[in-house]
Write a structure and sequence with these properties.
Distance between the termini: 45 Å
Largest sheet: 10 strands, antiparallel
Helix content: 10-25%
Oligomer: single chain
Number of helices: 7
Order of helices and strands: HEHHHEEEEEHHHEEEE
Radius of gyration: 18 Å
Amino acid sequence: MPIDAAKALAAEPRTGEISWTPKDVLLYHLGIGAGRPATDPGELRYTLESRLHVLPSFATVAGAGSPGVISGLSMPGVDVDLARVLHGGQSLTLHRPLPAEGTATATGRIAAVYDKGKAAVLVMRTDVADAEGPLWTSDAQIYVRGEGGWGGDRGPAVRCAPPAGAPDRTVERPVREDQALLYRLCGDWNPLHADPEFARRAGFDRPILHGLCTYGITLKAVVDTLLGGDVTRVRGCTARFAGVVYPGETLRVRMWRGDGEVRVSVDAVRGRGDAPVLADTSVQYS
């Protein structure tokens, strides 16, 4: 079996140093669509170094190394075809606001391996800390088609009841045709997002947008509309990737505000019949 659950779980954590500069933060913000309109004061806090605020989802690309999905596939006990891999979900817990420049230590390990029958799910956990203490913890859920069925733990249920009532806010965010090509410069070089031939081999008509790009677009929409543009209020963000986004589509982000939490639903509209993109999604805030 290409996935040896016991070996993966028993492997020693991998630790390495990461660093980033304001230029990396600016590139990430552009990669998730910031800067439209270019002179809007609300956008300049993402695109102008003299007033730079760091959107917390930058943590998923900080250091410009391999994202959690790619890192997880290189761990002991894991040997699978990249074309059979999808990013199933992402959670991020912020321990304090992210600085615009920093050096930190990232420690990654396989925290869980679940048997979903027709697929396996790996949970790649990364803890990041600098000289002042913990910065963030992230979990990437790695969905590997065709690798389940060995009788292992199915894992916890992740589906949530849909939010009740009408959303408090609904916004639409267009995705540029070249959004995936721009976003991949942040460090995710998976050819699924750029190479049409590879995308077809993976079962898609054409290259798809990175799930973490949609994740960032969504978090930015919540911060800008319900949190007054204050990135420091975000305490965490969890999402399940329910469907794909093709560059050039438009995302509809619906938000339900609760006490300390915003529930979110994201669909691709105008073309695929309101296809679901993010489900079981929430942003925790203070």
